Amino acid sequence: MESVIIIGSGLGGLECGYILAKNGFQVTVLEHDSCIGGCLQTFRRGSAQFDTGFHYVGGLGEGQSLNALFRYFDLLDLPWQQLDAECFDEVVIGEQSFPFACGHKQFVERLSEFFPKQRANLQHYANFLRQVGDHIYDSFLPRDSNEFYATSLFARSAYQFLNETIDDPLLRKVLSGTSLKMELNAETLPLYVFAQINNSFIQSAWRLRGGGSLIADHLAAKIREFGGTVRVHSTVTKLVEQDGRIAKVVVNGGETLTADWVISSAHPALTLSLVDESRCLRRVYRNRIAGLKNSFGMFTANIRLKPEALPYLNRNIFVHRADADLWHVDTGKRVDSVLVNYAVPEGDMAYADHLDLLTPMRWNEVARWADCRVGHRGQSYVEFKNDKVEQCLQLVEQRLPDLRGAIDRVFTSTPLSYYSYTLTQEGSAYGICKDWNNPMTTVLTPRTPIPNLLLTGQSLNLHGILGVSMTSVFTCAEILGMETLSDPIRRCR
């Protein structure tokens, strides 16, 4: 029986563990934290249970982008809650509000009510997104990855596509307005990332009653059921290369484990730093990976609400200042955009128990506290976070005037929090930035120069639940062969 050690128990690590354990491998998942799940973790503050990084997913409906993958991973029976199909996302620009409806036809119809002269352009936009989504599983077909990334939509600009397709500036801003689930960058964002992610949510949008930890717990339980092991408090401190392969995995500075394969769901630069001496990892390769830019992180205000004080909305609200430039985000000066994400109530569906406010935040805003331990960052850090909360509330209460009075308690996190608890480099929300100008160097494959060391996770191909799930298949295909995985996944469609 072949064996594999998986570094990290985020979604990518657990999905790789599930695939390989299901295919007869002896799997050991090592998690440095006290809880599994990475950004799927939840935490409780009093009566409210908050998600760390999971908020909602798209494409879970029959025949849609994520459905076959989650059917394969046996995740469809979790308590999913579909968002309002007539308005799953609401985009607020200044004092104007615009609904995003599920289904490509209805999506066009609802926005055409506000932009009647743009109906044909909206139809072209929606058709393009649908076409990209319809061919998502083509990526599981045999291909030359170098040629694919050089010629595919990874090598086209999302910003250029949007400007060429939509000639109304306000509508361009509206269509960009739900994209806090990716880092919009006019100079670098590939069209494939923009199209695939937005398309999945137009297909259908879902929350999970009970939070993202249900996904992690279910995958971990299945790994154990297949005979595997999932360990916490197990920090990989060194990877030892011998004869061109990873021969030993050192845990917590002393324990030594061995396996035929090692898969790391940690950031690629962090993974490579674990290999001290290597004849395979040349300095130029290490420097290239270490030099790749990370996407911005998030500031989150987790808000516990007073009982029956704020109605529950079965949608997300993206609130933007009228003069916000969504494609050239300049964090650090003022809060220009906030995502309001409600959690599915644990009791009465009429009222919200808690919600999150999220806004982009770059590492340089919090870097001055990076060397301080959690809970020991001082009053200046507390004041910094309080100011961010106030800015978020001032922007959001224009749309939700009753929110401030409904607040019971506010808890906050920054990119430092993500780094401290999940070892996410620079607290990045979406991993390494992909650049359509250089897809060959910024869209990474699972392979490394060490044959039995593979990568997985959001920094490789696509981020988010859909992207990481796709990438876990690519990673395991390096061991099992794509034909072993593509047929059972396609049968789930």
Secondary structure: elements and pairs:
Elements: E1 3-7, H1 11-22, E2 26-30, E3 42-45, E4 48-51, E5 57-58, H2 67-72, E6 80-82, E7 89-93, E8 96-100, H3 104-112, H4 119-134, H5 145-151, H6 158-165, H7 169-176, H8 191-203, E9 205-208, H9 213-225, E10 229-231, E11 236-242, E12 245-251, E13 255-257, E14 261-264, H10 268-273, H11 283-290, E15 297-305, E16 316-320, E17 337-342, E18 354-361, H12 378-396, H13 403-406, E19 407-413, H14 415-422, H15 439-442, E20 453-455, H16 464-480, H17 482-491
Parallel strand pairs: 1-2, 1-14, 2-10, 7-16, 14-20
Antiparallel strand pairs: 3-4, 5-9, 6-9, 7-8, 11-12, 12-13, 15-18, 15-19, 16-17, 17-18
Structural account:
- The chain is α/β, with parallel strands linked by helices and 493 residues long.
- The protein is 34% helix and 20% strand.
- It contains 17 helices and 20 strands.
- It has helices at 11-22, 67-72, 104-112, 119-134, 145-151, 158-165, 169-176, 191-203, 213-225, 268-273, 283-290, 378-396, 403-406, 415-422, 439-442, 464-480, 482-491, and strands spanning 3-7, 26-30, 42-45, 48-51, 57-58, 80-82, 89-93, 96-100, 205-208, 229-231, 236-242, 245-251, 255-257, 261-264, 297-305, 316-320, 337-342, 354-361, 407-413, 453-455.
- Strands 8-7-16-17-18-15-19 form a seven-stranded mixed beta sheet. The chain has a five-stranded parallel beta sheet with strand order 10-2-1-14-20, covered by helices on one side.
- A hairpin with a 3-residue loop joins strand 12 (245-251) and strand 13.
- It is globular, with a radius of gyration of 22 Å.
- The two termini are 30 Å apart.
- The model has no long low-confidence stretch (mean pLDDT 93).
